[in-house]
Each structure stands twice: as C-alpha cells, then as structure tokens.
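Record type: monomer structure entry
Structure origin: computed from sequence
Chain ID: A
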Amino acid sequence: VVQTATTRPTKLGQPFTRWSIRKLAAYLRRVHGHSIRIGREALRRLLRRRGITFQRTKTWKESPGPERDAKLDRIEHVLEHFPDRVFAFDEFGPLGIRPTAGSCWAKRGKPNRLPATYHRTHGVTYFHGCYSVGDDRLWGVNRCRKGTANTMAALKSIRAARPDGAPVYIILDNLSAHTGADIRRWAKKNKVELCFTPTYASWANPIEAPARSLARPDSTSCTSPPTHRRIQRSHP
C-alpha cells in the first residue's frame, strides 16, 4: 500500500497525476492481480501510521556547472578549517513598500479588500548583506541598485572587519557584478579568496538564512542615503 501511494500514478498506467484516497483504494482492489480490499478511512489511517501524508509537490534544480563539486568542496573546506575568517555576501531585492493583508472589523461577507497590483511610489532598494560566519554577525547597506561599485564597497567592509591582514574567504554567487576583473584584482591584492557557489546552489551560501529575515520592505527609498544595518545575532 505504501509503495503504491508513493509512486506516481502515471508510472502505474493510470490517467491522472496524483492519488486521491478514493482512487488509491479503487486501484488497490486490483493491483498485482489480487484484491487488497480496504476502506477509505482505514487507508487514510494506515498511511498516517507509516508517515505518509498528502503534500504539495516542490521543484528543485541540480547545478549543471562542471566545477560544481570542486566549488562545494572548497566552501566546505574553508568553513571547517577557517570559520573565524570566512564571510558571506549577497544582495537581496528588489525590496519595496507594498500593502499587506491584516484584519479589521467589517460587515459580514464584506471584508476590506486590497488591490492585487500596487505602485512602488518610493522606488525599490537592494539589501547588500555581509555575514561573518565566525562571529555570527550580519551587517549591510540598502542600495538603489546592484553593481560592481556597490559590491566592491561591501567586500571592502568585509576586508576591514579583519584588519590584521590575514587571508579571508568570502562566499558569494556568480553574479556578473561579483566576477569582474577589477574585483578579482582587488581580491588578489588584499588576500581575499572569492569562493563562488555553483549555479543553482544558493543554499551553499551561509548568508541566506540570517539575511532573509531582515530583507523586508521598510521605509527606505532610493531618494534617501544608504541605511546601514549592523546586527549582533545571538546563538540559540
């Protein structure tokens, strides 16, 4: 029963894409040439006891890059051997002010409604975040756009966080603003190793978890100067 429930119906010659309890029970009555007679509620309970629940299908991507394993191995190596000198960088956005649903008193059947579309009257911003793995410290600046100059400013702030001159390692993705010749020359001159994540492997960047909780719309607009955010996160 469990094997059938966790197999796509199309692989078993059925003309639909997912099982319902009714369809699964009907199929089990004739599977493998013998009858498995079970009621719908008993079938539901059996699946629950085996840890099988009805879940939404999710998508995923495998990195097609030829250097995938080498990049992941290097990231794992520096995180394990030099955690006090490993940093992560990424941009989050575009961020903008938008209406959010809440709650209010209203007549029955006539709730307040918000338009599905909205106008970014204050423009958008991008949060350029820097994360120190060893210190568990996140800081960053809101900018009006991405670009090599803004990336360079963030990387320099990371280099300044270790003024002793010892080598540092920065984990970041392969955005064109991160891979330019100027940035590579600066990194080589200042003892900075750029550890690029493979394509479709943003999960390998340690900044993803802490920064996404902060990269939310706020009152900062593109007409305002950059807003610095320096957060000291405590360990759980």
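Annotation 1: The helical segments are 2-5, 21-28, 40-49, 68-81, 148-160, 181-189, 208-212.
Annotation 2: Residues 217-236 have pLDDT under 50 and may be disordered.
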